TrEMBL record, chain A:
The keyword Ribonucleoprotein applies. Keywords: Mitochondrion, Ribonucleoprotein, Ribosomal protein, Transit peptide. The keyword Nuclease does not apply. The lineage of its organism: Eukaryota, Metazoa, Chordata, Craniata, Vertebrata. Belongs to the universal ribosomal protein uL10 family. This is Large ribosomal subunit protein uL10m. It is found in: Mitochondrion. It comes from the Eukaryota. One of its GO terms (cellular component) is mitochondrial inner membrane. Its main location: mitochondrion.
TrEMBL record, chain B:
The keyword Transit peptide applies. GO terms for cellular component: mitochondrial large ribosomal subunit. It is found in: Mitochondrion. The keyword Methyltransferase does not apply. Keywords: Mitochondrion, Ribonucleoprotein, Ribosomal protein, Transit peptide. The gene is Mrpl53. Signal peptide: none annotated. This is Large ribosomal subunit protein mL53. It comes from Herpetotheres cachinnans. Belongs to the mitochondrion-specific ribosomal protein mL53 family. It comes from the Eukaryota.
Length: 259, 111
């Protein structure tokens, strides 16, 4: 209908030399086009007036003191891991800290299996979880160890020799230190500990060493009287031999006099 | 900024690497990370004959990286005040220089 009215305007009787300023053709673009179509001027004005202006704060934020984001790290997972680490430290007698350099997975599984045979468990730990746990417990001196990737070898028994043997086969895991029965040992200390004889043998050795001096004293004290008894026995035997055969010899009496 | 694990070092001219540190000291972090990076699969794959040994002591000595090259050169890096990336780039540049020398030598010999 609009285009028809425009056509009607065009056909109004005109004077000879006047052409309409606006020649609206029927073949015009529609309202919805595939190209960008220029807005009507009134619409342009409306859009300009109603443009969005962002609200600006009275004081620009960089003039204010920086707000410290309180890091709420207490998500449940971290708490769970921390609790596990605490339990590990309480339950086990031997805890060895090793540096873990990347190993092929099969080797990791094999190592775990060999250590499991000796009741040693392998635990992968994250430094950021272990550090706060350690700083609050009594193991503060283990803190500088937990840098770079680490694993913990924990066990309720103290089989240092077997552990060292397994670790020797794996070059990518380096033993740094161990905490055995609440005693922190360096690598050298662990090797010495492994070389120690088992507890019963050590106890036997101590008892033997302690009993050595009194036994020496008693043997010294008994020395004189034992010698006397031996000489008297000898004398009796010789007298008995002499009764059956030759006469007794005076030497035993002289030996007694010399004493 | 480069990540230490992204630096690729070609270990072909290297015979052995000994990393010595005392874990209870506080300046060993970069040396330990260096050891961890060197033991990565891809870097180890460049030279299977290179032996990487870690020497863990407790005598308060400073962290040390001792690299023996196949042509007899020796590189000693004292890691107390070095970062991991610096150590890796230093080692990498020397390895590359040696590789180039080897290639030039082999090119001279072949024709």
């Amino acid at each position: 209908a609009l285009s028809a009215s425009r056509c009607a305007l065009a056909t109004v009787p005109l004077s000879a030399g006047w052409l309409p300023a606006l020649q609206l053709v029927r073949r015009g673009s529609k309202a919805v086009t595939r190209h960008w179509k220029a807005m009507h001027f009134q619409r342009q004005k409306l859009m300009a007036v109603t443009e969005y202006l962002a609200p600006r704060p009275a004081i620009p934020p960089r003039c204010l003191a920086p707000r410290k984001e309180a890091s709420e790290e207490d998500n449940g997972y971290a708490r769970l891991l921390r609790r596990q680490v605490e339990e590990v430290f309480q339950d086990n007698r031997m805890i060895a800290v090793c540096q873990y350099n990347s190993m092929p997975d099969e080797d990791v599984v094999l190592m775990r299996r060999y250590l499991r045979k000796h009741n040693i468990e392998v635990k992968f730990v994250l430094n950021e979880i272990v550090r706060p746990v350690l700083s609050q417990s009594k193991y503060k001196n283990l803190l500088p160890l937990f840098v770079a990737r680490n694993i913990l070898l924990v066990s309720p028994e103290t089989k240092a020799k077997e552990m060292l043997r397994v670790l020797k086969r794996v070059p990518q895991v380096n033993l740094l230190a161990a905490c055995i029965d609440d005693t922190i040992l360096s690598k050298q200390g662990v090797e010495n500990f492994a070389k120690l004889p088992p507890l019963e043998a050590a106890q036997g050795q101590t008892v033997g060493a302690l009993a050595l001096l009194p036994s020496q004293t008693s043997s010294l004290l008994q020395c004189g009287s034992a010698h006397l008894t031996a000489l008297l026995d000898q004398h009796i035997r010789q007298l008995q031999a002499g009764e059956t055969g030759s006469p007794a010899e005076p030497t035993p009496a002289q030996g007694l006099g010399a004493h | 900024k480069k990540m230490a694990s992204k630096i690729r070092v070609v270990l072909r001219p290297v015979k052995s690497i000994v990393v010595r540190f005392c874990p209870f000291e506080s300046n060993v972090e970069s040396t330990r990370k260096f050891l961890g990076c060197i033991n990565h699969k891809k870097i180890q794959a460049t030279n299977r004959n290179c032996e990487v040994t870690a020497d863990v002591r407790h005598d308060g000595s400073e962290p040390l990286v001792d690299v023996m090259f196949a042509d007899g050169d020796r590189l000693i890096m004292k890691g107390a005040n070095l970062t991991t990336i610096e150590m890796l780039t230093a080692l990498g540049s020397r390895c590359n220089a040696k590789e180039l020398k080897e290639e030039q030598k082999s090119k001279k010999k072949s024709p």
